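Many introductory courses stop at the sequence. We go one step further.
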Amino acid sequence: MIRIAICDDEPIALQMLSEHITRALAGQELSVSCFSSGSALRESLLSNHSFDVLFLDINMPDVNGIYLARHIRPLLGDALLIFVSSQDDAVFDSFAAEPFRFLRKSRLDAELPQLSRDLLVKLQERGEQHLSLRYRKSFIRVDPLRILYLESKGKVQEIHLFEQLIEVNYRMKELETLLEPYGFLKPHNSFLVNYRFISSIRPTELVLDGGIRLPVSKHRLKETKEQYLNLISEL
């Protein structure tokens, strides 16, 4: 579970942030706590509540978000701090608190998808984040960064990992939503591919590490190339 705290003094902004973040991280198991003041957040931390990710508004009447972050940093542990502001130039002042990212309120829809991918990858690097998928009559935890690709076989979806093949009863669209934050491309209606293992993109196929070849639909070729270039440019 990803434990998220959001702190913003404006009720409308707090609700909007919560909805946007929940949507951007669709498919993840989340616990979202909302705080309308810096003092309420600080009291929660002092009561030994911990979070994996903190979205903190910079401009609050009771205390400046940057000032607050610098003073509660010892209470945050290794939580990822994201400053949120309606003032774009506030990003320069935020560096002193060593945030993970800076998020502009005016650009939530544009910036949250990439931010969510970065968050999940960072949490994954810490060994904290896996997908929990229904598997037969129970659940199985899958490391999304170890998935090479997925292939749709009707009602059954094959998940090809480094060391094994897993068959799950999901719709391809469901898995596409779950894996979107991790950088999976859809070069063909029947395939989702982890961009990290693509070695080349050819007119009719993708070549993955190890020589695996997967088809690329003609009408998806341009989009697949653009998405791949965007993802590798962010490394």
